[in-house]
Amino acid sequence: MTPLNLAMCAWVYIMANKPRGTLYVGVTGDLVRRVWQHREGEMEGFTRQHGVKMLVYFEEHPTMPLAIQRVKNLKRWVRQWKLDLIEA
């Protein structure tokens, strides 16, 4: 992917609580801040409840709508496909 203006890009990411553990797929405009929020437990809900704090995969997209569509697609994937993506 070509270099982009960081203010305009979006990130799709997968976090886990341990290798091959519980997975969380998300989207953000600020990957560093969002990972920090997960690690510090600032995000209520699934990630805090399951201790999901480890960034295991990320990809950049030029716009938020494209990133959101990618997240929707990834969430429909079976678990093994996500693990294969992470490990590739």
Summarize the structure.
By secondary structure, the chain is an alpha+beta fold.
* Proportion in helices: 40-55%
CATH class annotation: Alpha Beta
Query: Helix count?
Result: 4
| Overall pLDDT confidence | 92
The sequence of SSEs as H and E is EEHHEHH
Question: Please, could you describe this protein's structure?
Answer:
This protein has four helices and three strands. It is of the alpha+beta class. The protein has a single domain (12-87), classed as GIY-YIG endonuclease. It has a three-stranded antiparallel beta sheet with strand order 2-1-3, sandwiched between helices. Strand 1 (10-16) and strand 2 (23-28) form a beta hairpin. The longest helix has 13 residues, at 64-76. The protein is globular. The mean pLDDT is 92.
Task: Output the keywords.
globular; 3 strands; 4 helices; alpha+beta; 88 residues; GIY-YIG endonuclease
